[in-house]
Amino acid sequence: xxxxxxxxxxxxxxxxxxxxxxxxxxxxxxxxxxxxxxxxxxxxxxxxxxxxxxxxxxxxxxxxxxxxxxxxxxxxxxxxxxxxxxxxxxxxxxxxxxxxxxxxxxxxxxxxxxxxxxx
Length: 119
Known about the structure:
The protein has about 120 residues and is an all-alpha fold. The protein has one domain. It has four helices and no strands. The longest helix is centred in the middle third of the chain and has 29 residues, at about 30-60. It is elongated.
């Protein structure tokens, strides 16, 4: 199972960046600098979240994995919202709402993809 971790991390990051960039475009984030910020923020937060969830599930099982998922996703939401507040040039959309929409979309898309691919 641990042998697949690097591939799992890479796939997760790639899919997250694609999904969140697409959704960012759909909600009106169009400037290249802002789209780059969306990608860079995910390069920072996604590996931390995915690694934490993966390792927690591996070591402690699925019950604790669920709790870790909630806390790590909240970390990602808050960290990304604070970064978006400082970096996004568009002020039409609240950065916390941007973070919520992008994270919720990529989380649920990831859950669906994981169920289709890995189970």
